[in-house]
Structure formats: C-alpha cells, structure tokens
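Sorry to interrupt, but I need a hand with the structure work. Could you write out one complete protein record for me, on any chain you like? Could you add the entry underneath, on a fresh line?
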Amino acid sequence: MAKLTDITGIGPALAGRLTDAGITTVDAVAKATPSALAEVQGLSVASARLVIADARKVARSSAAPAKAAPKAPEAKAAEKATAPAAKKDGKAKKGSKGSSKSKAKAKSKLKKASAKKADRKKKAKKQLEARIDSLGNQIAALGKAQKKLTKQLKEAKAARKKL
C-alpha cells in the first residue's frame, strides 16, 4: 500500500499534519477537496489541487490487481503473535492517538463554529429588534404628525368657507 509520502509535495512533516487531521491514506487524499486539504497547515488551495491530482495517480498505480488468497490458519496465528510486539513499539498506539486527537480537534472546530453561528444569530436578532423599535418610533411620530396635519387641514377648509 502506498504511503502519504509517496505523493509528490508531501514530506514527512506534512504527512504527520495530515495524519493528525484524520487524513491517513493516499485514497483519503485523492478523495479530499482542495479546501479541506488547505485547512492543514502548510497547504494552500492551489498546492492542495496538485497534491490531490498526484494522489489520484499514486492511488491508481498502487491499486491491488487481484484479491489475495485467504491466509492459512498458521499465518493468522503468526500475525496475532506479532501484533502485541507492534503495540510495544508504540506504532499502533500512535495511530490511535492521532485519530482521537483529530476527532477532538474536529469536535473543537465544530463547537467553535456553532458558537460563532449562535453569536451571529444573536447579533442579527439584536439588530432586528433595534430596527423594529426605530420603525415603531417613526410610526408613532407619523401618527402625531398626521393628527396635526388633519387639524390644520380642517382649519384651512373652515377658513376657505368663510371667504
């Protein structure tokens, strides 16, 4: 299977940041949008487009030609025996920490975005309430002006009749 560093433009540091963001495979990069990749520090939207294009090439070239034959029971047992050794190296744990960190980051971003949206709603509501109050005051002033003008009109009509 191809590694993130097999993609042109992705070195070890950027691969680490992508992994922290939850993008762990070449296929994930190939399927990502430029704007999603650009959220990772060190990538612009333009460079993300180039990285995605190369990731698609790498994904196509590394695609498995055929499904592997089922493993013999002895091979499965050998894999199980070596699995704890991989965990002791810290490699298996590191991957799980990275994904939980990225989930926590995503939750944090979502909370911040929700809070910003709520703040914008409150601000818009406050502005609308102020506008409604202002219009109410204008209507009240127009009502007073209308009464005054109606009185003046009656007086003018009465004066005309006298002439």
Helices lie at 12-20, 26-31, 34-38, 45-61, 73-89, 91-162.
